[in-house]
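Q: What residues go here?
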C-alpha cells in the first residue's frame, strides 16, 4: 500500500484538476456526485477553475461544490493499479 502525500495548497489549479480527474476515473473509489441525486443520473462532478480556485460542478444540474475532499488527494495509488488490472480482465 502506498499513500500519496499531496497538499492542495502547494498545487496549481491545473494539477488539482488533473488529480480530481484521476480520482473520478479510478475504479473502486467513491465517485463524487452532486447532493441532488442518489443515483449516477447526473454523472460525476467535473472540476473547473474559477478565479484561481477549483470547484466541482455537476453536469446534470447547477450544483457546485466549493471544497474538494481530502481523500481526493490521499487515496491509495494501488487502487489505480488494481483498476487497470481489473479492466484487462
Ligand atoms: Zn446534479
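A:
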Amino acid at each position: 500500500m502506498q499513500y500519496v502525500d499531496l497538499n492542495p495548497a502547494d498545487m496549481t489549479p491545473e494539477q488539482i484538476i488533473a488529480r480530481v480527474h484521476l480520482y473520478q476515473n479510478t475504479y473502486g473509489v467513491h465517485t463524487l456526485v452532486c447532493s441532488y441525486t442518489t443515483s449516477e443520473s447526473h454523472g460525476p462532478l467535473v472540476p473547473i477553475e474559477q478565479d484561481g480556485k477549483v470547484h466541482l460542478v455537476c453536469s446534470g444540474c447547477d450544483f457546485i461544490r466549493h471544497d474538494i475532499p481530502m481523500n481526493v488527494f490521499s487515496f491509495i495509488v494501488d487502487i489505480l493499479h488494481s483498476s487497470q488490472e481489473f479492466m484487462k480482465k
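A: Context that may help when evaluating the design: The mean pLDDT is 82. Helices lie at 13-24, 71-74, 77-88.
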